[in-house]
Request: fold
Amino acid sequence: MSEMQASSPAPIAEHENTKLAMWVFLGGEVVFFVSLILLIIFTRLTHSDYEAQFRSHLSIPVIALNTFVLVTSSYFVVRALEAISFKDDRKALRNNLIMVIVLGFLFLAGQAFEWTSLFGEGVNLASTYGSPFFTVTGIHGTHVFVGILWAIYLMFGHRRMPFTKENHLGIENFGLYWHFVDIVWIVLFTVIYLI
Amino acid sequence: MQTAKRPNYLFVFIALAGFTLIETLVSYVQQAAIKLPTLIVLSVVKAVLVLLYFMHLKFDSKLFSYLFIAGCVLVIPLILAMVLIMPVITP
Reply:
């Protein structure tokens, strides 16, 4: 039995178990977020006044800029991973994580600005389109905030066992989470704002 | 991630930023026949670029891809349910 186990090919390296767990988590997140996106699509399809009642209140250029901010933050995440996994450069890792945190907060600031504008124009949680909109973008924003906290932890909480060229799975798992949050926003940007 | 393979992250980032700009401009087009398919295709292309290169699915174990695809397959009943319910509740 042990010989059979030893000879069977392992689909992933043993040290990548946490990455496997992250992908299982992200598979679940797909179901969660698609359910929320369907809520928005369902509301739009069952009402005919989306353009007049809601979309006219949205500022597409501001949100396009916010989308660019989140996409840029994803680029800095891969730069952080590259810095540690190829160059073993902890300073570059830290600097790139700082950029991710700054851009993450900038994205949330953009979202807060948008929410404030919408509240000012009478779009609130009780309105037909406001309810699914604030629910979905709020949950997404919470994910961004959790990602920011995670990045801060990676910067300051790992001093006792710093990341190296050989040991950087923590950065890679964080990257998977952050990029997934980016993908969700790419879809939300199209479904809510552009179409 | 297999460290031997290094995608050009800057190229992927420029592509994502460029597609975002194109999407934004296309959203002002009035013809739905052009606007809708273009926006959907661009959105899918952007998501796939992030998955393949930033999340390294192109280079990593296929098991990770299967797990992500499993999540996508699981939502099919939800979409079908919505399609079936729609004619019932739409006035």
Q: What stands out?
A: Chain A has seven helices and no strands.
